[in-house]
Amino acid sequence: MRLVIIGAGFAGMYAALSAARLRDLEGRSSDDLEIVLVAPEPTLVVRPRLYEPKPETLTAPLQEVLKAIDVVYMQGSIETVDTASRVVEGVTADGMRGRLSYDRLIVATGSRLFRPAIPGLAEHAFSVDQLDDAIALDRHLHSLADRPASNGRNTVVVAGGGFTGIEAATEMPARLRAILGQDAKPRVVIVERGNAIAPDMGAGPRPVIEEALQKLGVEVRLGAGVAALDQSGVMLSDGDRIESATVIWAAGIRAAPLTAQIPAERDNFGRLIVDRDLRVPSEPSVFATGDAAQATCDDLGNYALMSCQHATRMGAFAGHNAAADLLRIPTKPYHQKAYVTCLDLGEAGAIFTRGWDRKVEMVGAEAKKTKQEINTVWIYPPPADRAAALASADPERVTDL
């Protein structure tokens, strides 16, 4: 029997760990159940940290961990999924096309930044969506030091006032001063189409966020969007223009395109709608997890968000259930009642909330310490030790906050 996992992000990594854990608990070998993880690189990109400087350092190796738990790593990119034949096809690392059959498939392909057809967006906007995007932005920021001082050089426009946009914007004053000199006076502007900053965070945390933005000197333009970009600035939907050499697009994400090849129902974000086992109802051999899946978290109507916090636990349940299905033992319905949010606010600290109603528990330096622990310890892969790695993937305990 073969279980194939597509993707090496948080969900894919924990799917592999959890499936291997169950196989081990059941006393089965890799000859009984082969687990194959397919991804372009054997690394975890620590995507929640890509707003930080030195993004090229924000990866963690996976090959030794996978080897320790007897998971086969296959380097390549899956391009097609044939659910009728239970075959995936793609391109290997050496450019050759290949086919791989499966008995169960876990789609853990993550998400991508949504880029609408705004004039100049593709040519002139940066992002912190993928590793290459973050590296390109970092190189661009360092290149600003070679330009003559001007308002446009010193101005960064962040399009999108959600979680990613706020973290990118609040980190930017310190990043620019480190590059341009401590006497530089960077201008950072968040442009948000809605009528409030951090629209998904709710009214409770918003005053803390607004105070932090004010403290850092980050401007907020509400009720306007980016209408067009060129190499020297942006035109807003209200007719105003902002001269800026750096525009960061942070206005929403969608499930990766491969999910569209699964003949199943999807939500407005392109996520496959799954049952409580994280199985695609119309395709019993296919499970979806992480940002590729719309999953119910509890009995109160809450759905998993497109975040690493949900992806890790969803991945553990998907791996367990796909393996359990093949081994003919009971599955474990996914649930994730605990939910916290820790939003980095740059030099102004951070904010930590608990629950779907975002009750504020920590702010400032205390929350910043927790954020740093999350970013540098909690979300990294387990050690390449078989017992420790397998123990980390108990679906009932992953991200149990």
UniProtKB/TrEMBL annotation:
Domain FAD/NAD(P)-binding residue range list: 2-315
Keyword NAD in record: yes
UniProt-listed Gene3D superfamilies: 3.50.50.100
Keyword Ribosomal protein: no
Record SUPFAM superfamilies: FAD/NAD(P)-binding domain (SSF51905)
Name of a matching Pfam family: Pyr_redox_2
Swiss-Prot/TrEMBL keywords: FAD, Flavoprotein, NAD, Oxidoreductase, Plasmid
InterPro entries membership: FAD/NAD-bd_sf (IPR036188), FAD/NAD-binding_dom (IPR023753), NDH-2 (IPR045024)
Highest taxon above the source species: Bacteria
PANTHER family: NADH DEHYDROGENASE (PTHR43706), NADH DEHYDROGENASE-LIKE PROTEIN RV1812C (PTHR43706:SF45)
Family the UniProt entry places it in: Belongs to the NADH dehydrogenase family.
The name this protein goes by in its record: NAD(P)/FAD-dependent oxidoreductase
Taxonomic classification: Bacteria, Pseudomonadati, Pseudomonadota, Alphaproteobacteria, Hyphomicrobiales
